[in-house]
Every structure is written in C-alpha cells, then in structure tokens.
C-alpha cells in the first residue's frame, strides 16, 4: 500500500495510482460520541465498503457524480482526488437522534417536509450545526456550492429512499460529504450504516450504527441484513 495521507475514525486514505486519485481503506473500528466510545467490530469495514460501493454505483447510474473510480478489494477503493468541502449535509425524513432530542419530537415522527441541515466538519469542535450565511461568511463554501450540494442531496435522498423502501427499509436520515474535483462538486466519503439511520419498515428495528451507539447488540448482523436486502433489490 502507498504512503498514508490521513487516518480517520473509520477509514485510512493513501496516495493513489496517480496525482488525481486516492486509495481509501475501510476499517473495522466503530466510534461514537466524537470518539468517546470506541470498539473494533468484526467485518464492519468490509460491510460498509460493499454497501457504499453498491450505492455509489447505483447513484452513478442515475446521474450522480461520485468519487468512486473502482473497487480494489473488499475493503479498499480507488477514488478521484477532491478537495473536501468542510461541511456535512444532513438529510432527515423522520425525526430521530439529535433532532428528536433538540426539538422534543418523538423518534419516528414523520416530518412535513424533508429537512436539510449543515454541520461543520470538525471533530475538535464536535461537528456543530452551521447555517448557510455562517458557511459563506467563513468562506467554507460559496452560496452556489451550497445550492448544488443541497440539490444533489435531495436527489440522492429521493433515489435511495425509493431503493431502500423496496428492500423493506426506511431511510430515516443520513449525512453526505461533497468535494471539489476541478469545477465539479462530487459526492465523496461513504453511504453506509455508519452514516445513515436504517429502520426495518415493519418492525422499526434499527439496522445501523445506533446498534453500537445505544448498546443494542448484534451490530454486524444489522449491517449484514442491510447488505443482504440491498443485493436482493439491486439484483447482485
């Protein structure tokens, strides 16, 4: 493997095959509450990588530009080099997690419209919420870039909500990261049970990282169930 450029909580980034690419390897490490809770979860890296790769390929087929170039092995991918925009885009379809706590809304409450939020990408500051005018004031992104990211996020939500519903899964909420690749804004990072809330459509059983956050157990089994159902509807 080439030289390590950066090691995060769940992934390692290496030099790529050329100056326009990176290599990313998914780790088995699970963290929560800004790294306060940490554990190695067997197979988590492989499961997240496979789920994310399937979703990125599906999104590419449906007009979303992503950083994925090719899958190298079960935990490793080659991606386009991009300058990450230092805000996370959060999409909420149902009330859950911090949204429920902050606004006193019971988890699972349907929202009258899709909610789009931004958080500053900063572990040191605890990824605080940040609004459009704050982002542009700090020159983190332009108004045009924020509009592009929001529109892409809404389209991704439409595509994935429909896909997962076919698999008997509700896409409750999720976060996305985008990057600048030349003049384009492209989807980066991952879409997996680490970055989404997935609930069984009938039982409302949690099939995502909340199993780790809330000590519900069987984390690997939840991730495996998401992958199994996803493969069924995609036809892999």
From TrEMBL:
Keywords: ATP-binding, Ligase, Nucleotide-binding, Purine biosynthesis. It is an enzyme of class 6 (ligase). One of its GO terms (molecular function) is ATP binding. Signal peptide: none annotated. Pathway: Purine metabolism; IMP biosynthesis via de novo pathway; 5-amino-1-(5-phospho-D-ribosyl)imidazole-4-carboxamide from 5-amino-1-(5-phospho-D-ribosyl)imidazole-4-carboxylate: step 1/2. It comes from the Bacteria. InterPro entries: SAICAR_synt/ADE2_N (IPR028923), SAICAR_synt_PurC (IPR033934), SAICAR_synth (IPR001636), SAICAR_synthetase (IPR050089), SAICAR_synthetase_CS (IPR018236). Its EC number is 6.3.2.6. This is Phosphoribosylaminoimidazole-succinocarboxamide synthase. It comes from Herbinix hemicellulosilytica. The lineage of its organism: Bacteria, Bacillati, Bacillota, Clostridia, Lachnospirales. The gene is purC3.
């Amino acid at each position: 493997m080439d030289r390590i450029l950066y090691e995060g909580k769940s992934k390692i980034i290496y030099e790529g095959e050329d100056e326009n690419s990176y290599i990313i390897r998914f780790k088995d490490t699970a963290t929560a509450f800004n790294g306060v809770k940490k554990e190695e979860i067997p197979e988590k890296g492989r499961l997240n990588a496979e789920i994310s790769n399937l979703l990125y390929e599906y999104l590419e087929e449906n007009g979303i530009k992503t950083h994925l170039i090719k899958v190298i092995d079960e935990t490793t991918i080659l991606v386009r080099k991009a300058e990450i925009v230092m805000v996370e885009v959060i999409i909420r379809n149902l009330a859950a997690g911090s949204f429920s706590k902050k606004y006193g809304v019971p988890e699972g409450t349907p929202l009258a419209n899709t909610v789009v939020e931004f958080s500053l990408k900063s572990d040191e500051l605890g990824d605080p919420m940040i609004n459009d005018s704050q982002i542009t004031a700090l020159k983190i992104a332009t108004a045009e870039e924020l509009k592009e990211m929001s529109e892409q996020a809404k389209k991704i939500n439409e595509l994935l909500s429909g896909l997962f519903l076919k698999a008997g899964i509700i896409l409750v909420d999720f976060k996305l990261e985008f990057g600048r690749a030349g003049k384009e804004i492209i989807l980066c990072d991952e879409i997996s049970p680490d970055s989404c809330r997935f609930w069984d459509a009938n039982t409302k059983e949690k099939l995502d990282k909340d199993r780790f956050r809330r000590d519900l157990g069987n984390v690997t089994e939840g991730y495996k169930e998401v992958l199994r159902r996803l493969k069924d509807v995609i036809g892999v």
